[in-house]
Amino acid sequence: MLHSRPALTSLINGVLQKAGASPAQSEPTALALVAAEASGLPSHGLSRVPMYVAHLKAGRVLGNAVPFIANQRASAVLIDAANGFAFPACRLAIAEAMERARATGIAIAAITNSHHSGMSSYHLDAVAEAGMVGIACSNSPAAMPAAGGKRPIFGTNPIAAIFPRSGARRSGARRSGARPISIDLSLSEVARGKLMVAAKKGEQIPLGWALDADGNPTTDPQKGMEGSMLAMGGVKGAMLALIVELLVTTLTGAHFGAEADTFFVDQGNQPRLGQAFIVIDPGALGGTAVYAERIEALIAAMLVDEGVRLPGQRRFELLSRADAAGGIEVPAATLDAIVALG
């Protein structure tokens, strides 16, 4: 059975408000979770609703939080999420970064005292629609060891980037193939949410995804969540995770991943995590015409080889397909768990 995005958004909105979230907190959160589900990323979609509700009830998230500007200069702004959900703070950060980038050419908006920020590329869609380039990164509760270590100290620390193409703006006719290039990856071998989904389904995970609490390779997703994730690309992935960790904590005052209790338990501290968004106006550098020519030239070179798929295209296709079909399929167990909360 198909469920429309508006209906699912309304359901989650109501569930979060019943658990104590204000409409200003619940509405952007519900929209983001449904978008992730429709994008084919259930690990960041509806499966997170019970966790979010539990965190509201335990005080790990403050349902009445109002994000605010804590510090600012012309091209830089710090948003305090006030220990609420990340999505309202991310919405404010993106709006601020875009406005400042239009004026100065480039801007950074960073967030402190935040929570799980979901699918990183989702936050950047508005940037591409405005014809600008966006970069996003976030830390998360400790899940990966430093290079050479066994104890989890970094989060999976996702990085995303988006590059608009001509015709990709919402205000104009979107040509076939003109969707932006959208890159989104966690720095662990896989996102930790995939272990959560596998554990709920009673499935095993491939070797190479995670270590157990003793530092041994495991195919048991529950043991992997109790242990640590393996970094993508070994030492190089661990170094990238360190870069993200430093960017979103030392510049903002946010918690290190090792200072934030895992998302996968109801009780725990307020995670107080950090996010950062960089927005660049191509017109401030080589110019929009140069940018458009260069990106299309590179894409054309990439597509010479049969089988090359442009990053982000599957996500946009799934979103379009969901809207055209009138909804998305949601596992019965996932939907039942959300309905029970309401």
Class per helix and strand makeup: alpha+beta
Radius of gyration: 20 Å
Low-confidence stretches: 168-177
| Proportion in helices | 40-55%
Report the CATH architecture of the largest domain: 2-Layer Sandwich
Question: What's the CATH class label of the largest domain?
Answer: Alpha Beta
Structure, explained:
The protein is globular. It folds into 2 domains: 1-64 and 312-342, Hypothetical Oxidoreductase Yiak, Chain: A, domain 1 (Orthogonal Bundle), CATH 1.10.1530.10; 66-188 and 231-311, Malate/L-lactate/L-sulpholactate dehydrogenase, NADPH binding domain (Ribosomal Protein S8, Chain: A, domain 1), CATH 3.30.1370. The strands form 4 sheets. A 7-stranded mixed β-sheet has the order 2-3-4-13-5-8-9, sandwiched between helices. Strands 11-10-12 form a 3-stranded antiparallel β-sheet. By secondary structure, it is an alpha+beta fold. The protein contains 11 helices and 14 strands. The model is unreliable at 168-177 (pLDDT under 50).
What would a concise description of this structure say?
The chain is of the alpha+beta class and 342 residues long.
